[in-house]
Design goal:
Blueprint: H1 12-17, E1 32-37, E2 47-51, H2 52-67, E3 76-79, H3 86-97, E4 101-104, H4 115-119, E5 126-128, H5 141-147, H6 151-154, E6 159-162, H7 169-177, E7 182-189, E8 193-197
Helix pairs in contact: 2-3
Length: 215
Amino acid sequence: MADLSHFPILSKEELRAIRPAVLLPNESLSDMRVCRWTSGTSGRPTLNFWTETDWNALVASTARMLVRQAPMQGPTVFNGYSQSHVTGLLYNAALHRLGGVAYDCSHHPEEFFSTPAQMEMFDFDTLILPERTKPGKGVGLANLLGDDPNLLARHSVRWWIGSSGTFDAESLALARGRGVESVSNLYGASEFGLFAISCAKNPGGLPCRPRSRSG
């Protein structure tokens, strides 16, 4: 922590104003394993970099959060997050660590090759998708269920994994009513990854605080 205190705190505006690679150490550029964009929910997307050691640690911690809520072993996954976004790649790596298989969504625009059309090409029991998205940033599960309430049941989805905000009670009820056994809502920031998961008893809200040993 003492070493970390020597680094200046950057605002998002300052971060966007500099060339991304300026922050990388010149002597260890080859150590960078992952380079991905953020979602850009607060403005222009920024870039984040991960060494192999840091990336492996992030994958391991995400897998530890997810395994506690997995309703099956070796899930078969349709990942609706963009692989250009750090979270899309992270979800794949974490589910692979749990023995799963992941099918990625296409990079094509929704109006050209829709997510439901892509989903019809695969058999899967786990869906990775945010509940809602902003225009131009893919599609959310609430939008898909609005068009096709039986989407989850038709694909026999047992596990819904998402992030990017809280989940509405209506979406949760619809998912539960269509056969979804477990809902996992992860929290974090694109620049440093996922760090918390919703309580299994309240998947739509914020992460629950661990109880003390005294109860």
